[in-house]
Amino acid sequence: MSTPLVKMLTHRGPVQALAVDLTGHYMATSGLDGQLKVWDVRTYKLLQ
Description:
It is built from no helices and four strands. By secondary structure, the chain is mainly beta. The mean pLDDT is about 90.
């Protein structure tokens, strides 16, 4: 696959870690910008 299904520009800089919950509904990301963000994967909306 050469084209991503979704491109999320979420952090100022590289993403250090990514985790998805067991249901696949939520994703947490952390970046070199020092922020931890929680997302609803179904809507791509920032929750926290």
